Amino acid sequence: MARADTAAIAGGVPGVVLMEAAGRAVARAAMRRFRPVRTLVLAGPGNNGGDGWVAARLLEQAGWPVVVAPLALPRPGGDAALAAARWRGPVVPFSAAEAARAGLVVDAVFGAGLSKPVDGLAADVLGAVRCPLVAVDVPSGVDGATGEVIGFAPNAALTVTFFRRKPGHLLYPGRALCGETVLADIGLPASVLPAIGPRAWRNGPWLWRILRPGAASHKYARGHVAVAAGKGMTGAARLVATGARRAGAGLLSVAAPDAATAAVLRAGDPGVIVAEDRAALLADVRIGTWVIGPGLPPDEGTRALLRETVSAGRQVVADAGALRAAAGDPAALAGCAVLTPHAGEFSAVFGPPGADRPGAVRAAAAATGAVLVLKGADTLIAAPDGRLAINDNAPPWLATGGTGDVLAGIVAGLLAQGMPPFEAAAAAVHVHGEAARRAGPGMLAEDLGSVIAHAIATYWLD
């Protein structure tokens, strides 16, 4: 946001105009959602505080009872100092007592670019709030780049941000602290974006395209996916197969490790091809995409299969056992197209992601040359070139056993149809969330199959 402000100001938009627009957006959002009550504006010394001074003035002009409590006065000569000088209302101490008796609090203490922990007096005052809180840009203490809490952060009922959402609005725990997030236009021109060169986006169909099957399309044109099944864990392969087929793959083969496993698999969906000769499947150049890992043990046999498949030039989606087999050895995953770890698998291979999860997944993608999908409530999709998508459409009931296998299948199904790895992974994650929303609370992984195709169809482009 600071870079966008700087670019806009350099392009002729006065900073004080942007600050007035931001404060106006905060005041309007508060007036639309709350009735007039004793309102306390907590103002920091920077531009975030300047937005708060403006909001206070506009709320008071609208007849609201408003007081301002500055943590510190703005630097003289800056835009925030000008905004503070225009305030003619009451100024009260920045204290826990004032926070506790307010009917509404506007948190304009620190913004998204916070670099030090919120502690001491600031934490005490924010922690004393007992009423709805409106955050300016982000709740103070939330890192706008990672969503992590630096020291203390309050729980906002409403967050008003500007120009574009920040990663911290989409990533937990920050996302949970923002409450309702309103994105306000404050006059920053879209022309500043190319100079900034954003490398992170909210995941959605603006990042990828799923083409509607053509009238002349046939099963061979829509790709052939193979899934390596494990002994005694046939359910995982079946779920992968469901995801890939429902995502549009024209053909699906399951490579069984032995005759007994093959017999179990053949008793399942009749449209799935079951083969016991894994080598023959691997030699078939028409089968360009493989899923390796679900239902497989984390052992040398799985590592060998992964190496062999990658060496054969196939696109590989690696999950579960294939990731655990590479514990502590990220190089073993080099050459894969997409990796789909959950937090535990990621930590086993690459080490704990730490506070900067976006940075960690980007580094893992760059190290392996694969697109990295770190699964969770706020799934991150990173490309080796640094692009990052943050997914926010997954409902909480998606967190149930087997759904990750279905996701690996969706990724493979889209890859097989020709989507590039980053786009295929991002689209698959979004479709996965939309399918779960349609399936509804209480869904099982098996329920996703009936709704994936309908979810995909909502994104079809001609």
Automatic annotation (TrEMBL):
Query: Could you name the domain of life of the organism this protein comes from?
Result: Bacteria
Give the cofactor note. Binds 1 potassium ion per subunit.
Residue ranges of domain YjeF C-terminal in the record: 202-459
Q: Which UniProt keywords apply?
A: ATP-binding, Isomerase, Lyase, Metal-binding, Multifunctional enzyme, NAD, NADP, Nucleotide-binding, Potassium
The entry's (6S)-NADPHX-binding residues are 47-51, 111-117, 137, 236, 295, 342, 405
Q: Where is the YjeF N-terminal domain?
A: 1-194
Enumerate the residues binding K(+).
48, 107, 140
Q: What Gene Ontology molecular-function terms does this entry list?
A: ADP-dependent NAD(P)H-hydrate dehydratase activity; ATP binding; metal ion binding; NAD(P)HX epimerase activity
- For this entry, list what GO says about its biological process: metabolite repair; nicotinamide nucleotide metabolic process
Residues bound to AMP are 375-379, 404
- Catalysis: reaction(s): (6R)-NADHX = (6S)-NADHX; (6R)-NADPHX = (6S)-NADPHX; (6S)-NADPHX + ADP = AMP + phosphate + NADPH + H(+); (6S)-NADHX + ADP = AMP + phosphate + NADH + H(+)
Q: Which cofactor does it need?
A: Mg(2+); K(+)
Q: Which function does this protein serve?
A: Catalyzes the epimerization of the S- and R-forms of NAD(P)HX, a damaged form of NAD(P)H that is a result of enzymatic or heat-dependent hydration. This is a prerequisite for the S-specific NAD(P)H-hydrate dehydratase to allow the repair of both epimers of NAD(P)HX.
On subunit structure and binding partners, the annotation says: Homotetramer.
Can you name this protein? Bifunctional NAD(P)H-hydrate repair enzyme
Species source reads: Falsiroseomonas bella
Biological classification of the source: Bacteria, Pseudomonadati, Pseudomonadota, Alphaproteobacteria, Acetobacterales
The primary gene name is nnrE
